[in-house]
Amino acid sequence: MSTRRNEPGEVVYILDDDEQLCSSLAWLLGSVHINAECFTEAASFLSAIDPERPACLVLDVRMPHTGGFQVQEILNRMGSLLPVVFVSAHGDVRMSVRAMQQGAVDFLEKPYDPQHMLEVVQNALHKARELHAERAGQRVLEARLAVLTPRELEILRLVVEGVPSKNIAGRLGISVKTVDVHRAHIREKTEAQTLGALVADVLRYGLRLSAS
User: pLDDT tens digit string along 64-78?
Assistant: First the structure.
């Protein structure tokens, strides 16, 4: 198990109504230089989340008022990027399957093995970094596309669909030369190395191209 320091700003949120367990886990994570923030009830945790901060969540299943599965549902509705690690003293296969189906990255039974918990958390933080990098890349691409005119977006959409320039010209009632000029403008304005690379990025992030 590596003990490298986590990236600046990264954090592990711990949501468990057992204060002693929260403190114990925070100490364990701190021993390998992982920052942790503890919460014993859902409302305070949900109000403290920073969506711009790479993080993961260690979440207890059974808590008063708002249980772990409810918290997971709320996070999913929010479009949260938090990888969730469930923990439970009363876990079973049904619970584990439900958690994983809803997007959890792991489900651990209490008392958990400390070394295994560290490994699971490190993996969850690694996933969090990947998800945030992906979102950052998508935002950059959206900003690049925002400079295009409605006509350029329309042509780019057809290019992404694999429509040749000749067919694009026929659909839009313009010349092939005009289509090629628009294609060149699209590449230049978005600062893409090639139009093919731009198309690949659009497909990668699943962006919908429209003038609205």
Answer: 889 999 999 999 999
